[in-house]
Amino acid sequence: MQKIIHKIKELSNQKQCLRNVYEIITDRYRGYRFETYTKLFQMFTLDVQKLWNGTNFIHCNNANYLMRILLVKSGFFNNNNIENKWTLVWYISPHQYLRIKLNNRQYINIDIWGAAHGIKFGDYAHGFH
Fold this sequence. Notes:
Blueprint: H1 2-9, H2 14-28, E1 29-30, H3 33-38, H4 48-53, E2 56-57, H5 60-74, E3 82-89, E4 93-102, E5 106-110, H6 112-115
Protein backbone atom coordinates (compact mmCIF):
# COMPACT_ATOMS: atom_id res chain seq x y z
CA MET A 1 0.00 0.00 0.00
CA GLN A 2 2.91 2.36 0.75
CA LYS A 3 4.17 1.96 -2.84
CA ILE A 4 0.75 2.95 -4.17
CA ILE A 5 0.60 5.98 -1.86
CA HIS A 6 4.04 7.11 -2.99
CA LYS A 7 2.98 6.77 -6.64
CA ILE A 8 -0.27 8.73 -6.26
CA LYS A 9 1.48 11.53 -4.37
CA GLU A 10 3.35 12.25 -7.60
CA LEU A 11 0.16 12.96 -9.56
CA SER A 12 -0.67 16.55 -10.48
CA ASN A 13 -4.23 17.19 -9.27
CA GLN A 14 -7.25 15.91 -7.33
CA LYS A 15 -9.17 14.59 -10.32
CA GLN A 16 -6.18 12.64 -11.60
CA CYS A 17 -5.64 11.24 -8.11
CA LEU A 18 -9.29 10.26 -7.72
CA ARG A 19 -9.41 8.52 -11.11
CA ASN A 20 -6.13 6.71 -10.41
CA VAL A 21 -7.20 5.48 -6.97
CA TYR A 22 -10.59 4.41 -8.38
CA GLU A 23 -8.84 2.32 -11.04
CA ILE A 24 -6.42 0.80 -8.53
CA ILE A 25 -9.22 -0.32 -6.20
CA THR A 26 -11.63 -1.48 -8.94
CA ASP A 27 -8.85 -3.46 -10.66
CA ARG A 28 -7.89 -5.12 -7.38
CA TYR A 29 -11.32 -5.89 -5.87
CA ARG A 30 -14.93 -6.36 -6.83
CA GLY A 31 -18.25 -6.81 -5.12
CA TYR A 32 -20.28 -9.94 -5.70
CA ARG A 33 -23.97 -9.95 -4.92
CA PHE A 34 -24.07 -13.47 -3.48
CA GLU A 35 -20.83 -13.13 -1.48
CA THR A 36 -22.10 -9.92 0.07
CA TYR A 37 -24.43 -12.11 2.13
CA THR A 38 -22.32 -15.26 2.51
CA LYS A 39 -19.32 -13.29 3.77
CA LEU A 40 -21.28 -10.85 5.86
CA PHE A 41 -18.90 -11.14 8.83
CA GLN A 42 -16.07 -9.64 6.73
CA MET A 43 -18.00 -6.38 6.54
CA PHE A 44 -16.78 -5.48 10.03
CA THR A 45 -13.06 -5.89 9.29
CA LEU A 46 -11.12 -2.71 10.03
CA ASP A 47 -7.61 -4.14 9.77
CA VAL A 48 -6.18 -2.21 6.81
CA GLN A 49 -3.43 -4.75 6.15
CA LYS A 50 -5.91 -7.64 6.12
CA LEU A 51 -8.21 -5.76 3.74
CA TRP A 52 -5.36 -4.69 1.47
CA ASN A 53 -3.94 -8.23 1.31
CA GLY A 54 -7.35 -9.65 0.46
CA THR A 55 -8.01 -10.61 -3.11
CA ASN A 56 -10.99 -10.21 -5.36
CA PHE A 57 -14.12 -9.89 -3.17
CA ILE A 58 -14.64 -6.87 -0.91
CA HIS A 59 -17.69 -5.33 0.76
CA CYS A 60 -18.70 -1.82 -0.32
CA ASN A 61 -17.85 -0.25 3.04
CA ASN A 62 -14.41 -1.90 3.11
CA ALA A 63 -13.61 -0.76 -0.44
CA ASN A 64 -14.64 2.76 0.52
CA TYR A 65 -12.47 2.59 3.64
CA LEU A 66 -9.41 1.66 1.54
CA MET A 67 -10.21 4.34 -1.00
CA ARG A 68 -10.55 6.96 1.73
CA ILE A 69 -7.15 5.98 3.14
CA LEU A 70 -5.44 6.25 -0.25
CA LEU A 71 -7.09 9.58 -1.07
CA VAL A 72 -6.21 11.16 2.28
CA LYS A 73 -2.66 9.77 2.27
CA SER A 74 -2.17 11.18 -1.25
CA GLY A 75 -2.30 14.69 0.22
CA PHE A 76 -4.85 15.81 -2.39
CA PHE A 77 -7.85 15.16 -0.12
CA ASN A 78 -8.75 15.34 3.53
CA ASN A 79 -11.53 13.58 5.42
CA ASN A 80 -13.79 16.63 5.01
CA ASN A 81 -13.73 16.10 1.22
CA ILE A 82 -15.12 12.56 1.51
CA GLU A 83 -18.64 11.65 2.65
CA ASN A 84 -20.03 8.17 3.24
CA LYS A 85 -23.46 7.94 1.63
CA TRP A 86 -26.09 5.19 1.82
CA THR A 87 -28.64 3.95 -0.65
CA LEU A 88 -30.69 0.82 -1.29
CA VAL A 89 -29.82 -1.59 -4.10
CA TRP A 90 -32.80 -3.57 -5.43
CA TYR A 91 -34.78 -1.38 -3.00
CA ILE A 92 -33.92 -3.72 -0.09
CA SER A 93 -30.15 -4.09 0.25
CA PRO A 94 -28.25 -1.32 2.11
CA HIS A 95 -25.28 -0.06 0.12
CA GLN A 96 -22.54 2.48 0.80
CA TYR A 97 -20.83 4.70 -1.75
CA LEU A 98 -18.70 7.84 -1.49
CA ARG A 99 -19.46 11.45 -2.36
CA ILE A 100 -16.22 13.30 -2.95
CA LYS A 101 -15.69 17.04 -3.18
CA LEU A 102 -13.27 18.16 -5.88
CA ASN A 103 -11.55 21.54 -5.80
CA ASN A 104 -13.84 22.67 -2.96
CA ARG A 105 -16.79 23.08 -5.34
CA GLN A 106 -17.74 20.05 -7.46
CA TYR A 107 -19.06 16.76 -6.05
CA ILE A 108 -18.63 13.36 -7.65
CA ASN A 109 -20.14 10.03 -6.58
CA ILE A 110 -17.86 7.01 -6.42
CA ASP A 111 -19.10 3.43 -6.14
CA ILE A 112 -16.28 0.91 -6.05
CA TRP A 113 -18.55 -2.08 -5.43
CA GLY A 114 -20.88 -1.01 -8.23
CA ALA A 115 -18.11 -0.83 -10.85
CA ALA A 116 -18.27 -4.61 -11.31
CA HIS A 117 -22.01 -4.29 -11.92
CA GLY A 118 -21.86 -1.66 -14.66
CA ILE A 119 -21.99 1.44 -12.45
CA LYS A 120 -19.81 4.07 -14.09
CA PHE A 121 -17.32 6.46 -12.51
CA GLY A 122 -19.42 9.34 -11.12
CA ASP A 123 -22.55 7.28 -10.43
CA TYR A 124 -23.70 4.88 -7.71
CA ALA A 125 -25.88 1.77 -7.44
CA HIS A 126 -29.49 2.34 -6.42
CA GLY A 127 -32.84 0.74 -7.07
CA PHE A 128 -32.37 -1.88 -9.77
CA HIS A 129 -29.53 0.17 -11.29
